[in-house]
């Protein structure tokens, strides 16, 4: 083809049409909103001789923050697969974690494996597939291409699936050593370098400035790195062309001197916290004598670095910084070191909230509240994260608001105030509103885009956050500034500076993102006597004073986030949260009382605090441990949530064996997304639960909708919220609502307690002397028997005489017989309640539960025993149980068929159960004592038959239908179910 045939012509005549034929809206004939276009087409723009963005970036709604793949177009007459072309595409794709991308001049289409860190020397080796345009006539070859890159295939996850089949980019050791971090993803590689730069800088700063303490050293090191990264961001976007990271040292010969001078100039232009003068870092007395800073500048120089901050998604930078903030600099008298924060070390790392989780929570809270509103109605709404960390949720909120405003103005163009570049009218100087406007016209598409001034206004009016860590606050502000400038260019920023001569590009966020303690308020001074330095470390925060305009309107319109999950413990040393004092404060502060119970976990206090700070009618959305739905320790928090909120829903992610499917990789934790509207519930108000088995909102899920009074029916004490299908819940409600059924705790003469002997506290009375009283442990208990043979190595005895002579009292011995259950049931998912009759008298270890019947109980213990071991009770118990422990409260809440023994029908059913259980106890003894396989098989079949008879009798006692029995036994069809009214 003629060399005069340009790339632009090739794109217009062939390449655009090719991708349109694959189902993509390349011409934006359907997708008008600039923030929600699945194909972003870039004009060829070069800065410093290098093209800054790929020609095409392809996305799938609703995720417009991370492309699925890129296409880089070239003119047909040039060689397509040159090292430079391959490197250029690899650089775009690797910086956004795109596994595959395409070089295309229409004559050829080349697919590259982009999972490796780009290097021009190896770029051509990353070519994976080649196609000539004549191959498109081959059905098999075109089918391969279509099922990989068509819009339909991309929406089905074809690219990720195919990339997963490629060799892992860890490779062999010699491959890893080809160049630094070649096997790492962008987030892993940049985090590794940031951590190294922090350590090098900290040691250098401490060596040259020995008086720096840990807090100051952490702050000046963080601020220096933030400035350098922000400067590279401005440089890559073409916004800042006068000062570059690589140019530091060119004016004075010393990079640090140029850096200080540039910081003063950039502070005047950009404002914000990044370049603001720091009393230590920017002081003339601050010494930087080593080469560490110069070395970092050289590595971050755009001529040497593979990072392209013009394309790295802001949420990826956020994930990097969230993990980066998990460590702190410790300064000793002469040295500096970096170590993990105690709470991070205890948790096994930092778990950054995935972007799809952030988006879902924000859409269900902020998105729901602003839906149908005009920009004027949204103007003074407030959305917050009170434990914001690096700002991932704040970024999600800001992005949601930007998208909504852009779409609204494009749908209502006549109501948009367009930006005017004119400075004066016949009446004089234009007002700020006239100069700024809400929108500007996109030069290419003609669509409306928000002006920088409008985005500043949205950020200042609507986005708020707090965090205890000052470095997190700085990074959150830093991330929001990056988001503010994400779609700006040198032209738009220059125009803003012309329009507003006295205004810097970046607004101050000091009144929006604040360093303070979300849980501890100013009332602490009335509860404890604190030294000034202690109060400074605690950083009490009075929200009404910090955000007066917000609380004039009654509080935040929405609070979202991922609060800390740390257990509040005494003697936690240098933990970020002041645990010792917090441990006392939360027990004294009345506004946090609803979070008390069991081990005090921070996330419960954040739920209670968020519900207090959100205004009436406002929305709440957190991702928290699954324990909030059923654990006893969370009962007070759960009851409070149910009492003050309506429209509660929970999207649950129980963990599976495949760790890659977890919301938080490597975390041994099940989680749920908890959403609610703060307003008093009605009797008919519902709680919705969806269970996603593989952490994807696209997966098949179980769904159920509960009335609040139904929750109280099945668990009146603790208001557990079960993870069940609708039909399972309906059957469960039936068990509890039948007029003749009561709870086990309400059966007269039945006493359920935990085993009386704590093996740690009473160790001195425990012996291997078999002449003493038997000490029964949970591991020895099986259904209808004590595992005598299996418990040989576990069997112990209790010195009752010494125990009583020491002033202790005999416990439970007045009640005979007793039923013992395991308290920890182990790994057998089929069984939870494992019970047997225990005679003669013995002591129970605290790994058991005891069910004792007094003389006033009208039921035979074997009637209870048959019910407890039945398949129905196993099924019912697991509906509201969150772990393998069997608590006494869970046993107490089980439904019990209270027969009227004065009537023949009731007496006959009772006696039939007693007879079946008596046969079962004897059959179990015979099976255990069998001396050969024939006898053992006979008694095994006998117990199986008795089990079936007992199960059938239990189904009859509870009045189950054949369909309900199929459900209990796992024979009912699974899958999504419609909500029942």
End-to-end Cα distance: 68 Å
CATH topology of the largest domain: Adenine-n6-DNA-methyltransferase TaqI, Chain A, domain 2
Q: Name the CATH architecture of the largest domain.
A: Alpha-Beta Complex
Shape: globular
Q: Based on DSSP secondary structure assignment, what is the total number of beta strands?
A: 35
Put simply, the count of helices is: 35
Task: Tell me the CATH superfamily of the largest domain.
Answer: Adenine-n6-DNA-methyltransferase Taqi, Chain A, domain 2
Mean pLDDT: 86
Q: What's the CATH first level of the largest domain?
A: Alpha Beta
Strand sequence of the main sheet, in spatial order? 17-16-11-18-19-21-20-22-23
| Sheet/helix structural class | alpha+beta
Helix content: 25-40%
Largest sheet: 9 strands, mixed
Q: Number of folding domains?
A: 4
Q: State the low-pLDDT regions, or none.
A: 45-49, 171-179, 657-661, 974-981
């Amino acid at each position: 083809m003629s060399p005069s045939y340009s790339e632009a012509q090739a794109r217009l005549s062939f390449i655009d049409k090719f991708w349109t034929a694959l189902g993509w809206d390349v011409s934006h004939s359907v997708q008008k909103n600039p923030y929600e276009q699945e194909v972003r087409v870039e004009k060829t723009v070069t800065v410093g001789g290098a093209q800054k963005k790929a020609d095409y970036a392809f996305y799938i709604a609703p995720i417009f923050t991370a492309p699925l793949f890129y296409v880089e177009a070239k003119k047909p007459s040039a060689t397509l697969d040159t090292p430079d072309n391959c490197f250029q595409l690899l650089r775009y794709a690797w910086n956004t974690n795109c596994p595959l991308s395409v070089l295309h001049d229409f004559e050829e289409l080349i697919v590259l494996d982009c999972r490796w860190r780009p290097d021009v020397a190896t770029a051509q080796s990353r070519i994976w597939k080649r196609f000539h345009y004549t191959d498109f006539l081959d059905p098999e070859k075109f089918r391969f291409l279509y099922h990989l890159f068509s819009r339909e295939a991309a929406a089905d996850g074809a690219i990720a699936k195919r990339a997963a089949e490629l060799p892992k980019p860890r490779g062999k050791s010699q491959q890893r050593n080809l160049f630094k971090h070649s096997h790492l993803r962008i987030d892993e590689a940049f985090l590794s370098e940031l951590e190294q730069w922090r350590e090098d800088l900290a040691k250098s700063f401490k060596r040259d400035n020995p008086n720096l303490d840990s807090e100051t050293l952490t702050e000046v090191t963080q601020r220096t790195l933030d400035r350098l990264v922000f400067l590279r961001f401005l440089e890559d976007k073409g916004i800042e062309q006068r000062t570059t990271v690589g140019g530091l040292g060119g004016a004075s010969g010393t990079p640090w001197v140029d850096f200080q001078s540039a910081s003063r100039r950039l502070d005047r232009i950009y404002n914000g916290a990044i370049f603001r003068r720091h009393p230590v870092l920017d002081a003339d007395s601050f010494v930087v004598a080593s080469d560490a800073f110069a070395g970092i500048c050289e590595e971050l120089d755009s001529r040497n670095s593979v990072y392209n901050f013009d394309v790295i998604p802001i949420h990826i930078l956020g994930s990097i910084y969230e993990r980066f903030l998990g460590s702190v600099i410790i300064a000793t008298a002469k040295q500096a070191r970096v170590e993990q924060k105690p709470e991070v070390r205890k948790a096994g790392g930092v778990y950054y909230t995935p972007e799809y989780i952030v988006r879902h929570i924000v859409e269900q809270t902020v998105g729901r509240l602003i839906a149908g509103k005009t920009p004027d109605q949204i103007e003074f709404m407030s959305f917050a994260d009170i434990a914001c960390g690096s700002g991932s949720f704040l970024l999600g909120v800001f992005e949601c608001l930007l998208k909504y405003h852009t779409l609204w103005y494009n749908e209502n163009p006549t109501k948009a105030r367009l930006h005017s570049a004119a400075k004066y009218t016949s009446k004089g100087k234009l007002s700020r509103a006239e100069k700024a406007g809400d929108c500007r016209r996109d030069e290419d598409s003609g669509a409306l885009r928000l002006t920088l001034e409008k985005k500043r206004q949205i950020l200042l009016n609507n986005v708020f956050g707090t965090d205890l860590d000052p470095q997190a606050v700085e990074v959150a502000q830093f991330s929001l500034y990056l988001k503010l400038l994400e779609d700006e260019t040198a032209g738009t920023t220059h125009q803003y500076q012309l329009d507003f001569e006295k205004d810097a590009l970046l607004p101050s966020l000091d009144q929006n993102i604040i360093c303070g303690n979300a849980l501890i308020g100013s009332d602490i001074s009335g509860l404890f006597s604190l030294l000034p330095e202690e109060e400074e470390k605690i950083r009490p925060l009075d929200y009404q004073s910090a955000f007066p305009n917000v609380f004039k309107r009654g509080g935040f319109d929405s609070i979202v986030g991922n609060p800390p999950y740390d257990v509040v413990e005494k003697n936690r040393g240098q933990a970020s949260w002041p645990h010792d004092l917090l441990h006392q404060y939360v027990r004294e502060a009345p506004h946090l009382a609803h979070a008390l119970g069991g081990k005090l976990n921070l996330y419960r206090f954040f739920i209670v605090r968020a519900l207090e700070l959100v205004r009436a009618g406002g929305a709440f959305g957190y991702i928290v441990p699954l324990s909030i739905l059923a654990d006893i320790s969370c009962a007070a928090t759960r009851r409070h949530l149910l009492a003050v909120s309506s429209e509660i829903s929970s999207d649950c992610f129980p963990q599976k064996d495949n760790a890659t499917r977890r919301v938080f990789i490597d975390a041994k934790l099940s989680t749920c997304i908890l959403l609610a509207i703060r307003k008093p519930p009605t009797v008919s108000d519902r709680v919705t639960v969806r269970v996603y088995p593989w952490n994807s909102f696209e997966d098949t899920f179980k769904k159920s909708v509960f009335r609040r009074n139904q929750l109280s029916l099945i668990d009146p004490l603790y208001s557990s919220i079960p993870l069940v299908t609708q039909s399972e819940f309906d059957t469960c409600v039936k068990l509890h609502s039948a007029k003749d059924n009561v709870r086990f705790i309400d059966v007269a003469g039945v006493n359920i307690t935990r085993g009386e002997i704590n093996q740690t506290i009473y160790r001195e009375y425990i012996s291997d002397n078999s002449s003493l009283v038997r000490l029964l442990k949970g591991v020895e208990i099986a259904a209808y028997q004590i595992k005598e043979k299996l418990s040989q190595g576990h069997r112990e005895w209790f010195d009752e005489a010494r125990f009583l002579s020491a002033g202790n009292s005999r416990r439970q011995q007045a009640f005979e017989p007793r039923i013992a259950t395991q308290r920890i049931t182990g790994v057998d998912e089929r069984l939870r309640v494992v019970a047997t009759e225990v005679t003669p008298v013995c002591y129970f270890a605290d790994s058991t539960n005891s069910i004792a019947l007094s003389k006033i109980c009208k039921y035979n213990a074997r009637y209870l025993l048959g019910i407890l071991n039945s398949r129905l009770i196993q099924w019912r118990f697991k509906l509201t149980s969150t772990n393998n422990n069997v608590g006494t409260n869970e046993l107490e809440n089980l439904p019990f068929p209270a027969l009227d023994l004065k009537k023949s029908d009731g007496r006959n059913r009772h006696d039939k159960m007693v007879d079946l259980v008596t046969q079962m106890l004897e059959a179990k003894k015979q099976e255990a004592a069998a001396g050969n396989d024939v006898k053992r098989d006979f008694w095994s079949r006998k117990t199986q038959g008795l089990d079936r008879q007992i199960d059938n009798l239990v189904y009859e006692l509870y009045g189950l239908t054949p369909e309900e029995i199929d459900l209990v036994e796992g024979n009912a069809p699974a899958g999504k179910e419609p909500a029942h009214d």
